[in-house]
Amino acid sequence: MAPRTRTAAFSLAGLFVLAGAACAALVGGVAGEVLTIVLISAGLAGALLLVFLEIGLGEERENAREEERRRRRMLRALGERRGSPWHRRRRPP
Asked: What is the CA radius of gyration of the chain?
């Protein structure tokens, strides 16, 4: 998910919360209460889901970095075992 998309999603969740607060102040009766509850709940739930998404994406990036490090170590060790020219020791005459 692109950073711009994440920013837009968080902004939309914030707008839902603000719209719910505006409904609480401006719309009376049961309809106002229902709109307030629905909009604020949707905004807060959306923000919570986005926070969990951010945590998951951070873990994915960390796992990918660790896998890349592990792969490089394995390739380096394999190259040393095969006697690659970069790691070859000089034998005494």
From this structure: 27
Q: What is the pTM of this model?
A: 0.67
Q: Report how far residue 53's alpha carbon sits from residue 55's, in angstroms, rounded to the nearest whole number.
A: 5
> Per-residue pLDDT tens for 3-28?
888 899 999 999 999 999 999 899 88
Domain extents in the chain: 3-81
Give me 54's structure tokens: 């951010």
What number of residues does the chain have? 93
pLDDT exceeds 70 at position 64: yes
C-alpha torsion sign, points 33, 36, 42, 46: negative
Write down the residue that tokens 């923000």 correspond to. Answer: 47
